[in-house]
Prior knowledge:
Layout: E1 5-14, E2 19-25, E3 36-43, E4 46-53, E5 63-68, H1 76-81, E6 87-90, E7 108-114, H2 119-126, H3 129-133, E8 136-143, H4 152-162, E9 166-172, H5 185-190, H6 193-198, E10 207-212, H7 215-227, H8 239-244, E11 249-256, E12 263-269, H9 278-285, H10 289-297, E13 304-305, E14 312-313, H11 316-330, H12 335-346, H13 352-387, H14 402-405
Parallel strand pairs: 7-8, 7-10, 8-9
Antiparallel strand pairs: 1-2, 1-6, 2-5, 3-4, 3-6, 10-11, 11-12, 13-14
Helix pairs in contact: 9-10
Bound molecules: flavin-adenine dinucleotide and NADP nicotinamide-adenine-dinucleotide phosphate.
Amino acid sequence: MGNFVAGTVVGKRRWTERLYSLRVAAEVAPFHAGQFTKLALDINGEIVGRPYSFINAPGEKPLEFYFILVQAGPLSPRLAALEVGGAVWVSPHAAGFLTLAEVPDAKHLWLLSTGTGIGPFLSILKSEEPWQRFDRIVLVHAVRQAEELAYDETIRDFAQQHGEQFRFVPFVSRAEMDFALRARIPEAIADGRLEARAGIALAPESSQVMLCGNPDMVRDTTEALLARGLKKTGGAIPVTLLWKVIGKSVWTKVKNRARADWTAYRIVIGSQGEEMTVSELARRAGVTADTVRHYTHSGLLIPRRDERNGYNFYSNDDLTRLVFIRKARLLGFSLGDVSDILKDSSHGRSPCPRVRNLMAQRLKEARHKLQDLKKLQTRMERATALWTNMPDGMPDGNAVCHLIESIAMED
Ligand SMILES: Cc1cc2nc3c(=O)[nH]c(=O)nc-3n(C[C@H](O)[C@H](O)[C@H](O)COP(=O)(O)OP(=O)(O)OC[C@H]3O[C@@H](n4cnc5c(N)ncnc54)[C@H](O)[C@@H]3O)c2cc1C
Ligand SMILES: NC(=O)c1ccc[n+]([C@@H]2O[C@H](COP(=O)([O-])OP(=O)(O)OC[C@H]3O[C@@H](n4cnc5c(N)ncnc54)[C@H](OP(=O)(O)O)[C@@H]3O)[C@@H](O)[C@H]2O)c1
């Protein structure tokens, strides 16, 4: 199980019929608040893994995950059926860019989420960094029904510990609740209700905004922010393109630059459901866009194709794969080798025996090539020496170049 470490469920909470949290004891590598890892189960002999955001802060144990049971999904119903003591595979390596390292300094941080999209924000708020960097932090959680407002104790703790620095704004869209806004986030931005509840202005010169959750919310909220006079800047992905990307979450950054009249608005695809264009993937992996296209045609990268516009969109898994392919190529593995290694890995088999065998073969081939190159070098040196004192000749109909023709056809 090369890609996963063994985890044990040490806690479980059922928030509603469809919303669950699992606490898992597992040894994973350090990660940044806001990142995600993969949970996996053995389902009919196949390892099925999916990404899940950490709810716990970096360094906090046990690990915690908050998820929705997708009825027809292969993994989430089985995760929901796990009980304390149950076994689950956990990827030891986290990924994702929905982290504060990506956020420039500002006075106010807005964290806008729907449903399970609140997860990475809880991890961020459990860490020290946001409280040190931002004067005010607004956490928005939008759900359909009040019972889906999970982690209320955790949120109360934030409020108790941080007082006026923190404001929680719940939205319950399908029931009348005196404590919550009955609205959708974009609409409450447009009509000012969100700012009224938060007690601060959502102003470009003072705010950074992170979005996570329903892709339609992300799209509509982005539009609402733009409509508020925020302007886009050259982010990694053009805004127009991004709007067509259906990812689970998106980073939205609103940044005030040196000139007060020039407000930059930057959007970068974030952690959950992150998708990248060819050029963005190439930039992140340090390769050319042609390399990405070549590996795509070879079937090593499998992007999502948007049928409406024909664009390919790549995931974080593709980025990990691409970096892996580059390393393998540096070691002399062929694309065919890489494909076999990746297949082993995705079928839950250790690729190491194959990698060792292939490396032995490739090393033998490299030695042969080196010997051939050495022979070539000797021939070239001999010819250069021989030609030193030979005069230049002219083509005479029988000879093309007497320098080359002077060489004997030996070994
Ligand atoms: C980077 C990343 C981070 C993620 N983090 C979380 C998380 O913290 N919590 C979580 O519940 N899910 C999260 N997901 C989704 C998760 O990985 C699984 O897709 C989900 O649990 C369903 O798994 P499944 O195998 O049962 O069904 P899948 O075959 O994976 O999904 C079936 C369908 O269910 C829908 N779906 C998937 N996840 C959700 C969701 N959360 N809400 C609404 N509809 C959904 C999608 O339309 C999907 O096509 C994340 C996904 C990504 C890409
Ligand atoms: N929660 C349930 O009771 C329930 C029941 C059965 C199936 N499901 C399915 O489970 C999945 C996840 O459900 P969920 O309730 O966690 O998440 P969800 O459907 O994304 O709803 C969470 C919140 O996001 C809001 N929202 C949806 N689209 C938006 C948009 N374009 N802009 C702004 N806000 C938007 C919803 O408002 P609105 O209420 O106005 O849509 C709701 O307040 C969905 O696929 C859903 O169909 C959920």
